[in-house]
Structure formats: C-alpha cells, structure tokens
Design a protein that fits this description.
heterodimer, A: 662 residues, mainly alpha, B: 649 residues, alpha+beta, flat
C-alpha cells in the first residue's frame, strides 16, 4: 500500500469519525438550545433558514457586502430605480434575516414609498400587498417572536389599509374584503333572536372553529369525508391541475375563489350570467357544483383548504384567530382592522415571552399594545361591513360601507387593565395623564354619542355611567367634572359638535340615525321619528361631504375621504336593503310596508332572493300570504334596475374607489 | 448500414453544394413569407374598435372650436401602441435567425444542427410543456443552454473560418479561439454564462408589473453577462499569454518570423473576437427575451396590449413603451441667472466690504473674487430651488431645447424629487404643477427624498421649444366660495440639482441596445489588452490580480466619486493627513476612469436612457486610446523580455 493511499484512508477515517461525532453532538446541542431558549424560532429543531447559512458562508465579507447592498438599494430608491431597489432589498433580507429592522424598513419602503410613486389603484395595491407579505410571510417566518415586527405589520393594516390617508384607501378596503371573503367565506349572519354579545361571539368563533377542526392532510380529509375527496379530485381533473389541492396554496386559493364566486352568483340569483356571460372556468366550476350537490361536502373541502392557506400562505394560526374572537369580540376577518388586531395582539403575546430586565422599559411593548387598542377602537368604529362581492369581482366600483360594531364596545374596557399593567412605567398610577386612559375616555364618549343617536337610551346611559365612574380617569382635565354632570342629551350633543369633521364620527352619526329612522320610526310606523331622523342623517351627510370635499375637490384623488357614498339616497337605500335582511320576515314586512317606494326599490330584489322561496313555501301550506302580497313589487322597478346599473358604471368611471384611472 | 457510416454519409451530404443551395433557398423563402405575413397582419384595430369615439373638436366658453385634448392624447397613445406592435422587430429577429441558419448551412453543419436540435427538443420540450413545476424549468434550461451553446459554436466556427489566412496575426488569433474551447477555465465560464442566461428568465416574479420585470431582466442579465465575460477575458487573456511562456510553447512561435507586436495583437484579437462572440450571443438572447417579455400581459391588461374596457393603454404598458423600451434624452431646467450676471455684482461688492471690516488690507485677487462670486451664485441657486410654502408659494422653472420633443408628439416624462423636513419617511408633501397653458397637475402624495415620475403632454411645450412651469409647495383647492386657494405644506421644500428633469424619446430600444453592446465590447477589448499587458511580464496569478484590480477600479469609479464628498479630512492629526492622502489618491484614480465609468451602459439600457453616437464615439475613442497605450507598453516589454531564460519555475 503506497504512502498516498495510506494518507487517503486515514483522512477518510477521520472524516467518518468527525461526521459520526457531529451527528451525536448536534442532537444534544439542539436540545440545549431549546432548553435555554437560545433560538429565534419556537422549536430548536426548526433550525435556521437557508439564507442564514449563506451569510455565515460569506464570513467576514458579509458585512462589507451588506453595506454595499444597502448603499445601492438606497441610491436606487432615491433615483427611482425601484425594480433594482426591490431586488437589492431581497438580497439584504437574505443576508441579514435576523435583524428585524431590515424587514420592517424594506416592507415600509414598498408599502409606503414605492406605492405612492405609482398612479393607479391596482398597482398601488400590489405594492402595499408586497410590503405586507414581506413581513408576514418572510420576515415573521425568520423571526416569529419579534414584537417589533408584529407591531409594524399591525400598523400597516391599521394605517395604510384601514386608514384614510392614502388616496387609494377605498380601493384597498374593497380588494382586501374581496380577498378575505374568498379565503374565509362570508361572515356569519346573526340570527335576529340571538343578538346577545356572547351568542354573537360564539357564532363568529364557530366560523373559524370549523377551520380549526378541519383535517390537516388530504388523507385525513378523504377518511373523514370521501365525497369531499371526490370533489377535490374532480376539480383537479376539470382544471387540469399539475399539483394537488392541499399541497399547493396557489391552487387552493383558486379553488376557494371559484367556489365563492359560484356561491355568490347563485345567492344573487345571477345564474343566467353563468350561462351567458361567464368564462369556461366559471362554467366548469358551476357544473362541478351541480354534479356534487351536497353543500356539506363542499364546506368540508373548503375548510380544509382554508386551514392550509391560512397556515402556509398567510402564516396565521386559526386557533389563535378563535382565541382572539373570544377575547375581543366578533371579528370580521374581511376587515383590515381584524388583521391589525391579530398581528399586534400576537406580538404582545409572543413578545412577553422575551421580556427581560434589560428590555422592560422598551417602547416596543407600549407601542404594540397601542396598536392592539387602536385596532379594537377601529373595529368598534368600522367593524360591521356591507360590501358587494360581485361588483368587486367584476372590477366595478363596488358598494362598501363599514359601520360601527357595537359588540366591540365592552372590549376596550375589558383590555384596559391588561395593557396598563403591561405598559409599566409609561402608565404608572402616579401619572396625572395616561395615554390609555385618554383613549378609553374618548372611546366611551364616542359610544355614548352613537347609542344616543340610535335611540338606544338604555345603553347610552349605561356607558355614560361607566364613564362617570371610571377609576382610571386622568386628573388633568378641569372640564371633566362639568361634562359628567350634564344630562345625557346635552352630553351627546357636545360630543357631536366637538368632532363632527371626523370621518368616523360622521359615519356613525349618519348610520345611527338611519338605524333609528328605520327601527324606531318605520317599523313602529312613527313617521315623525322616521322623518326627523332621516332629515338629521341627510344634514349630517351633507355637512360632512361639504367639509371634506372642499379640501380635495381640485385634486385627482376625489375618493380619498369617501367614507360614505356621496349620494345620500343611494347610501340610505343600500343601508335599508342591508338592514332589512338582518331582521325576521315579520319585521321585514313591517319595515317594507311602511317604507316609501324609493327605499323599497333598493330592497326588493334582495328580499325576493332571501325570502321568496321560504314565504312561497309557507303560502302553499297556508301559513302565510304569498310573497307578492307581503312584499309587493314597487312601481318603476325595471327602470330602477337600469338606473342602478348606470349609477354603478358612473361611479366606476368617476374613480370613486380612489385615484383616477388613466 | 453502420451508424458511423450513416453519419459520414450525412456529413458528406450536408457539405455538398446542392444541399447548401437548396437549404438556403428554403430559408430565404420562409423569411420572405414571414415578412409578408407580418406586415399584412400587424394591426392595433382590436384595441381601437372597442374604444368609444371621442370628438376631435370642442367648443370653449366663447363658442370657439378648440382641439379636444382627450382626442389628442388618444392619438398619442395609439401611435405608441402602433410602434410597439410594429412588425419591424419581429422581422429583424427572424432575419437574424435566418442569417444564422444560412451560416450553419454554409459551414456544412445544417443536418448536424437539425439532428441536435431534434434530440434536445425531444427531451426539453415535453419536459417544458407537460412536466410542470421543476421539470418544466429543467426543460426550459436544457433547451436554452443548448440553443445558446449551438449559436456560440456556429459563431466560433465562422470566426475561425474568417481567420483562416496564413498571416501571423490571424493565425495566432485563430489558435486563441481554438484554445478557448480547450482550456477548462474558459469552458467553465462559457457554460456558466449559458446556464445563467437560461435560468435568469425563470427568476422573474410574474406578479410584478411588466415594466419592472423587463427592467430587472435587462439590468441583471446585461450586468451578469458583462461581468462573466469580463472575468473570462481576464483569466483567459492572462492564461493564453502566461501559460505559453511558462510551458515554453512560445518558443515555437517566436522562432518563426513573428514580431512581438504581431504576437501581442494576435493574442488580443483572438480574445476580443471570443468576447465579441459571447457578447453577441448574450445580447441576442437578452434582446429576444426582452421582446418576448414585451409581448406579455402588462398590469391592468386583459390580454397583451389590450387594456380593460374604456382605456386605450394601461399605465404599466405606457411606461414600458415610453420610458423603458426606448431611448430617452433628459433635459434639466435652465437657471434664470448665471454667475456673471450683474445682479451679483452688488452682492460681491458687499461681501468684499464685509471682509474689509475684518481685514482692512483685504485686496482679493481675481481668483479669490471668482471664488467669492461663485459662492454667492451657489447660494442664489440654492435659494431659487427652495420654495417656502407661505412667503413664496411657488417657483418657476424652464426647460429649453424641446422643439424636437414637441414635433415628435409623444408623451414626455417628468421626473421630480424634493427634500424637506429631513426627508422623514412618514411624511408626504402635496405638490402642484402648473403649466403655461393653464393645465394644473396635482401630485398629492409625494414622498420625500426619492424620485417620482409622471407623463406630460407635449403640447405643454411652446413654439419656441420651451417648457415653462410653476411648481407649488402645496395643493390647490377650492374654498367655500369656489375660489382657488393654496393649502400649503408644513415646511420649505428644496428641489436638489438632480431633482427635476424632463425626458423624451429620441431613438429606439433596438438602436440603443446595439450601441450599448458596442460600448461593452470596447470595454472588454480594453480589459483584454490590460490582461495581455500584465501577463507579458508577470505570472498568471499576478497578471490576473492586476487586471481584475484595474477592472474593479473602473467599475467602481462612479461609486467612489459619489462617496468621496462624505470623506472626512483634516490636516491636524496623523489620521487626518492619511485620510487626506487617500482622498486625493482615490479622487485622482477614479477621475482617470471617468470616461470608462460615465458611459453607464447597463443602467442606461434598464432606464431607457439614450447612449448617443456622440457619447459612444468619445467613450470608445478614450478606451481605444487607452488600449493603444497598453498595447505599446506590452510590445515594448515583450521585445525586451528574455523568453529563453524564463521557464516558468
């Protein structure tokens, strides 16, 4: 045996021993890492993403290379070479994946800076989504327990999408609602007999719980429901999919989108559009739906796919979503505020695991809790949503109205102690002025004004009492005692005068008075109340639009502040149509019967779709009058339908969703 | 019949003149047929038929007929679409392809290549179309790499054929080309280039706007190709000269009647032709794929070149056609005053008097006066570019020399950038642009510290070829009495020197791309000569190090120039003195390479900015001169070298 051969054999032996030893030691080291919480992820065995290895492999050159990339990315951004700055940002995040500021900087850059250089709502939305996705899918995957990133993500949802500072915010809201309507399905319909808060929360929790309870794998789905498995196979075959449902989120999302579209078309009574106007894929989906008529099978498959998409694509935890509904209230996941709450709340949960003596006074904790509370506030102000899915799908200026959700009124107070305790020095008892206390006071003022306007005096008094007896009230306001001594009416009016220019106040005033007009006026045939509240709503609407449109009428962004439709009759008609669907048929009959014809026209088609089959069935059994008697078609309905379609077209051309199209 | 016999028979057949003539005629016939169909079939009627007709003329408030600006804009957009869908590019591409095929035929490789393409096609195409996911990508890569390598092989053979004369220079160059596919070092780079060019299209993200995909592809593919070929040139040039010296192969060459100057230029020529071939293949591949990308669906379109109902063109498509796949010239605003204007005389005098208060015998020299005047002028410029929201409200800017842009009648691009409030990332300013004809364009959300663009109508340019506009620091709005009022921004905004420009199309993407490839080739030629020069006296590793250093200095010269202003210096501490020395050295070296750097070919092609013939000529001339200098030095060194003594040990 030659010298070289011996050397080689010895070298191979040493290498084998080394590999064997590292195999044993790796397990022990990983275990120790997990025990002493020396990992970025929740489980030591999750390991580092591949990009960390890339950075390590570069050794000392990583720092130099990263610096060059940062300089180039900044220069590219300043010079408007965004295609390059995005690529460079992507490289930087790969080389510095554990530095949260890298992710938040680049996602902010996309969502805020690059998006405003574009001129169409579509392209802006793509950039906003890109910024959100960078944090949600990649940044948080590399740093799942970083509170700062959670807070930033929550802020983006709250400020950029749910807020109104961006010209295209109305477009964002509609697209966001459309996307999440496809993923989660429609929000549950509240039974008029079960409006109690606890029951509504159970209903909304159940909406997500069904997703939690769905099978984890395709095999388990097949075992649980063979028909659902058959539908999946039929879909894959019909759409010539190269991958399987449940393993490819793109295919899963396509299924959910097509499934939801078919459901909405059928619900809207637009089967004729499937036959006459739809493309081949929509027809194929409808044919599948007819081939497998059992809705439960479709539901099971959809929930299985929803679970997969939520976890793999959106990095969300359905279990946590249920927990948050139970903790905060009936979150509509089609609302961006719901997602702001989810992420900021998750950040406070995981961040607390990492509190130490060193970071106890970090502003990140306080700021994260602020986002939580602001999200709750936003859900109270805009958490109830009405929007037209099909109009968004067809690229038209869809009706979208977010109105106050009273089920979140108790949430803020319930959270207050928790956030105050977690905010440490910043919310100490000895401070005469504390931010969260101010927030709660303003929150209650808002709620009291709303309940009063709606005619719900009992609730208004209840919350007024809460405010009067709030122990954490700030002591720096000399007028507080005087205000608390006012009668309810004067107190409510004062809140209105102080803040009428604010969009959410205007929306809640208009909405509350219309609600009162319909339920306290029309339904009980008190036309004085109806006319009075109607006029009040009209004046509030006109005042708001006059104030806001003086500011932006000369700009191209005519829709930026359009929290309510400009046409009051259109707005009121839409709200009437939505509200009438949420009550019992008997109550709907009263509302409809006493309503003027122009309101009836807005509601008639929806009522026919919703109630006609049931009422006609009951009429056959002599348990009810026919539908035509209870809900007679108002005069001029055919002309109204033409007028309504033209109105939607005109709104689309006017760019009411945001900035003008070119 | 044995396989080897069959192959020989086919080979004899494809080398036959009759086969070549028939095959050539077939290729020409196909080309002519395609050209005919393209010209007849090119149309944009699908778009125009679906658009509502717009009135050409409108009545103003006095009842006079005036041209409808919307009709004019529609015409501009249609003309852009017509050009972008013109069959010229497709016909040119097919013609180039036909030329290649003719070359293959006349090199006697027609049937060989058909067979090779068929075999690869049988593997690659089914994978691509039916494989899905990773297999589809593999099919694409296999097909791409094969086509690139086959094309390169054809070019290389053609070059060797062209260099087949018996002259020493051509002989040496021909040998260099043969070495290129023999040496492992060059083969690795060539394969890597082909592989990366084939893979790069797959790295594009389909959900990005089309223009970003095109820009990203142009930028990265051109940069990457250039850098890879440059490194190949360095290593190969150094290897081909230094290895011959080390292995004593050069003795056989130099014993023949080959002069040193012939040897050097022969080596250089071979490397330059090799890099030219690689650049040609890369360039053609990049151009073809860019044209393919152009024909994809842009953001907001329902089909390629078809915007959704009610629109002629989407924004993504318009920016792609007018700002990216074009050649634009930029114009910056002219200052309304110059440093020698009388308005500065009084200020200069006042400044001198102020100095005399401190120093009674102050008597400035002409140079000092000029410096003081320049400082006053710069302050005035800075004031001019700063717009106070309350006391000033707006500033007027003027662009001249835009007569050609007005004649062209195509939309212009206005790029602007403002600085304010420390460029806070959470602040946005509203700006208003008011043009000479009364048109007002609002930019309600302008981020601070980075560029924004929008398109403007060429009718804003007056008959003297001037574009005059006012920029307001705020947003115009209507007050309660329906009168126009200004809503000012919270602070003063400043337009930096590079913060305002107008650009317009002066050429085509095709022409610009060709010029840029020429510039890149010239750069590679210079690099080849630097490497040959270095290896004429140094060993292979040292020659590579020297050449790569020169290359990196040239490529980073612009970066160094932009970083130097921030370099702190002082003459008080030792460190400060060293820093001052570094500054002057870096400044000098980077300025020396300014002609090399300022061409910025890759950035221009991605941004759609013109690299005109004048710039090409001056840049190429500078680089040819530098090449010449290195050549002369190499010849001098080579003639004085004792090749017999150096044995490479």
């Amino acid at each position: 045996m030659g010298h070289n051969t011996k050397v080689r054999l010895i070298a191979i032996l040493v290498m084998m021993l080394g590999l064997l030893g590292s195999g044993f030691l790796t397990t022990a080291i990983a275990s120790s890492q997990g025990q002493h919480e020396l990992v970025y992820t929740d489980r030591a065995e999750d390991g580092d993403p591949p990009q960390v290895a890339l950075g390590i492999a570069m050794g000392a050159f990583r720092g130099i290379f990263v610096n060059i990339l940062w300089l180039e990315a900044t220069a590219a951004k300043e010079e408007g070479r965004f295609y390059e700055s995005i690529e460079l940002a992507s490289m930087i995040t790969k080389l510095q994946p554990r530095l949260p500021q890298v992710w938040t900087f680049h996602s902010w850059n996309m969502a805020y800076n690059i998006s405003v250089t574009t001129h169409t709502p579509e392209e802006r939305w793509e950039w906003v989504k890109a910024g959100v996705d960078l944090l949600r899918k990649e940044g948080l995957a590399a740093n799942p327990n970083d509170m700062h990133m959670h807070k930033e993500l929550g802020w983006m949802f709250l400020h950029k999408i749910s807020g109104y500072t961006d010209d295209a915010n109305q477009y964002y809201k509609r697209q966001f609602a459309y996307e999440w309507h496809n993923i989660m399905g429609p929000a549950p319909t509240i039974n008029p007999d079960e409006r109690e808060r606890r029951k509504v929360i159970d209903l909304y929790a159940g909406w997500v719980q069904r997703i939690v309870d769905a099978p984890d794998t395709r095999t388990m789905l097949g075992e649980a429901n063979p028909n659902a498995e058959a539908i999946a196979r039929a879909f894959e075959s019909a759409f010539k999919a190269n991958t399987r449902l449940g393993s490819d989120t793109i295919l899963d999302e396509e299924f959910l989108r097509r499934y939801q579209l078919d459901v909405e078309l059928v619900r809207a009574g637009k089967l004729w559009t499937i036959e006459e106007q739809s493309g081949p894929k929509t027809k194929t989906m409808h044919a599948l739906r007819e081939q497998f008529p059992d809705e439960q099978d479709w539901d099971d498959l959809a929930n299985f796919l929803r679970k997969h998409v939520l976890i793999k694509e959106y990095n969300m935890e359905p279990v946590r979503m249920v927990q948050q509904v139970r903790k905060y209230g009936p979150i509509d996941w089609r609302s961006p505020s719901g997602h702001a709450l989810y992420w900021s709340s998750r950040g406070t949960d995981v961040g607390r695991m990492e509190v130490s003596a060193r970071n106890r006074t970090s502003m990140d904790f306080l700021n994260a809790y602020r986002i939580v509370m602001q999200s709750v506030q936003d859900l109270w102000r805009h958490g109830d949503m009405y929007f037209n899915y099909l109009d968004v799908h067809e690229g038209r200026a869809a009706y979208y109205q977010a109105v106050p959700n009273v089920y979140f009124v108790p949430s803020y107070g319930a959270m207050l102690n928790e956030v105050v305790n977690a905010s440490g020095v910043y919310e100490a008892d000895h401070k005469p002025y504390r931010q969260f206390s101010v927030g709660y006071e303003n929150f209650l003022r808002d709620a009291i004004r709303f309940f009063y306007r709606r005619g719900d005096i009992a609730n208004a008094e209840f919350w007024f009492d809460k405010l009067r007896n709030f122990e954490g009230v700030n002591v720096n306001d000399p007028d507080f005692a005087y205000e608390m001594s006012l009668p309810l009416k004067e107190f409510a009016d004062k809140q209105l005068y102080d803040s009428m220019g604010s969009p959410q106040v205007a929306v809640s005033e208009v909405y509350a008075s219309l609600q009162s007009a319909f339920f306290n006026g029309l339904m009980v045939r008190n036309m004085d109340v109806f006319n009075g509240q109607w006029e009040y709503a009209r004046k509030a609407h006109a005042y708001f639009h006059k104030q806001q449109f003086n500011e932006v009428v000369a700009s191209t962004s005519t829709g930026r502040m359009e929290f309510m439709d400009r046409d009051f009759t259109f707005l009121a008609g839409q709200l009437f149509a939505n509200m009438i669907m949420t009550v019992h048929p008997e109550q709907a009959e009263l509302l409809y019967g006493y309503a003027p014809d122009d309101l009836r026209r807005y509601a008639y088609d929806s009522l026919a779709i919703q109630f006609k089959p049931l009422i006609d069935q009951m009429a056959e059994q002599n348990r009810s009058e026919p539908f035509e008697i209870l809900f007679p078609e108002p005069d001029g309905m055919a002309q109204f339908r033409v007028f309504y379609d033209a109105k939607i077209e005109a709104r689309t051309n006017r760019g009411v969703e945001g900035i003008q199209q070119n | 019949m044995k396989l080897s016999t069959l192959i020989s028979t086919i080979d004899r057949f494809q080398h036959g003149r009759s086969f070549k003539i028939v095959a050539s005629a077939l290729v020409v016939a196909v080309l002519l047929t395609y050209t005919g169909f393209s010209i007849v079939g090119s149309t944009t009627n699908v778009v125009s038929d679906s658009q509502p007709q717009v009135q050409e003329m409108l009545q103003d408030q006095d009842g006079n007929l005036i041209p409808n600006p919307i009709a004019e804009r529609d015409r501009q957009l249609r003309s852009i679409l017509d050009v972008s869908q013109s069959p010229v590019n497709a016909v040119l591409s097919v013609s180039m392809g036909a030329l290649f095929v003719l070359l293959i035929i006349w090199l006697g490789l027609g049937l060989t290549y058909i067979g090779t393409v068929a075999i690869v096609g049988l593997i690659g195409w089914p994978l691509y179309f039916f494989g899905g996911g990773m297999w589809s990508s593999l099919g694409f890569v296999i097909s791409g790499v094969t086509m690139l390598m086959l094309s390169f092989s054809v070019l290389l053979r053609a070059l060797r054929l062209a260099l087949s004369s018996a002259h020493p220079i051509t002989t040496i160059a021909r040998n260099v080309l043969a070495e290129a596919i023999r040496m492992k070092i060059s083969v690795v780079f060539i394969l890597l280039l082909a592989f990366m060019l084939a893979v790069m299209p797959m790295m594009l993200e389909v959900d990005q706007p089309l223009r970003y995909r095109v820009q990203g592809f142009l930028q990265w593919s051109t940069s990457f190709s250039f850098w890879l070929i440059a490194l190949l040139v360095v290593f190969f040039s150094a290897a081909t000269v230094s290895y011959e010296q080390r292995e004593k192969v050069i003795w056989q060459t130099m014993t023949k009647p080959v002069a040193a100057w012939q040897y050097i230029i022969g080596k250089w020529l071979g490397v330059v032709l090799l890099s030219g071939a690689l650049l040609t293949i890369s360039g053609l591949g990049i151009f073809q794929f860019t044209e393919y990308l152009r024909s994809q669906t842009a953001l907001g379109e329902v089909a390629p070149y078809q915007a959704s109902e009610g629109r002629i063109m989407t924004e993504d498509r318009m920016i792609l056609e007018t700002q990216v796949l074009t050649a634009r010239r930029s114009v910056i605003p002219v200052l309304p005053f110059g440093p020698h204007d009388e308005q500065f005389d009084a200020a200069l005098e006042a400044e001198v008097q102020k100095e005399r208060l401190l120093q009674t015998d102050f008597n400035p020299t002409p140079g000092q006066l000029a410096g003081m005047r320049m400082k006053i002028f710069e302050d005035a410029v800075s004031d001019y570019r700063s717009i106070d929201p309350v006391y000033e409200g707006y500033a007027t800017f003027s662009f001249t020399g835009l007569g050609p842009a007005r004649s062209l009648g195509k939309p212009l691009t206005m790029r602007y950038k403002i600085n304010a409030e420390g460029n806070r990332p959470d602040m946005f300013y509203a700006m208003t642009f008011s043009f000479e004809d009364g048109t007002i364009i609002q930019r309600p959300q302008t981020g601070l510290g980075f560029s924004h663009t929008f398109t403007i109508d060429p009718r804003f340019i007056n008959e003297q070829g001037e574009l005059n506009l006012q920029i307001y620091n705020g947003q115009l709005a209507l007050d309660n009495n329906d009168r126009m009022m200004m809503r000012p921004n919270p602070g003063t905004m400043t337009i930096p020197p590079d913060g305002l420009e107008v650009s317009y199309q002066v050429g085509t993407f095709r022409g610009n791309f060709t010029r840029i490839m020429m510039v890149l080739w010239t750069k590679l030629a210079l690099l080849a000569m630097v490497a040959v020069w270095a290896s004429s006296f140094a060993s292979f590793p040292v020659a590579c190090l020297m050449s790569i250093t020169v290359f990196l200095i040239g490529e980073s010269a612009g970066f160094v120039q932009s970083a130097l202003p921030g370099w702190a210096m002082d003459s008080e501490s030792v460190v400060g003195v060293i820093r001052t020395g570094i500054f002057h050295f870096a400044n000098g070296v980077s300025k020396f390479f300014s002609a090399y750097h300022e061409l910025k070919p890759t950035q221009r092609i991605a941004d759609g900015r013109v690299l005109g013939w004048a710039q090409v000529s001056s840049g190429v001339l500078a680089m040819i001169s530098a090449t010449g200098v290195f050549y002369l030095i190499s010849v001098y060194i080579f003639r004085r070298r004792q090749l017999a003594i150096y044995s490479g040990q």
